[in-house]
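Model the whole thing, not chain by chain.
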Amino acid sequence: DAGVIQSPRHEVTEMGQEVTLRCKPISGHNSLFWYRQTMMRGLELLIYFNNNVPIDDSGMPEDRFSAKMPNASFSTLKIQPSEPRDSAVYFCASSPRQGRWEKLFFGSGTQLSVL
Amino acid sequence: GENVEQHPSTLSVQEGDSAVIKCTYSDSASNYFPWYKQELGKGPQLIIDIRSNVGEKKDQRIAVTLNKTAKHFSLHITETQPEDSAVYFCAASKGTGNQFYFGTGTSLTVIP
């Protein structure tokens, strides 16, 4: 199993540019989560999907952020326009939703730097 | 919503000693408590978890305890090794379909 695959690993962009982060969950997993990690706020849940449907996007900081999951094997997180305060590590995680308790499997993250 | 607090934020131990990390939670409805280990440049990886119907769980050198009455749970690492050096996160959840609330992390350094 290849695990959760995220791309790119590093992204450096200028303020105002559009940024798209990509995620391929583990095959067969029903849930997908996007997290943001910063020193100040730790791990924050941005949005999560069940069976490709967005369930809770209350963590999305503002309208500049959007996420899609067009099929079970692919999701994107888009920031448009990007701002320096968006600089963080963005993690995608998937879960098989087996049983009563979910186990999260994280990707290696995308280190985003907005200059 | 749930509030998870984690202490200490940094911890240094000598190789072979034990390390303990503590977390408290606020929502009595939380019933699942995983611990994640994050190595430099990698995503968090699940190392052990405990459910609310269990008071203690052990896996080799790692153990987790849960006190539901006091709403706190702890990670214990015995006979620490340099490869245990990482950031450790606790989390709380109400189970499938509910989100995870993470603690702020503990940076553990094991000194050879």
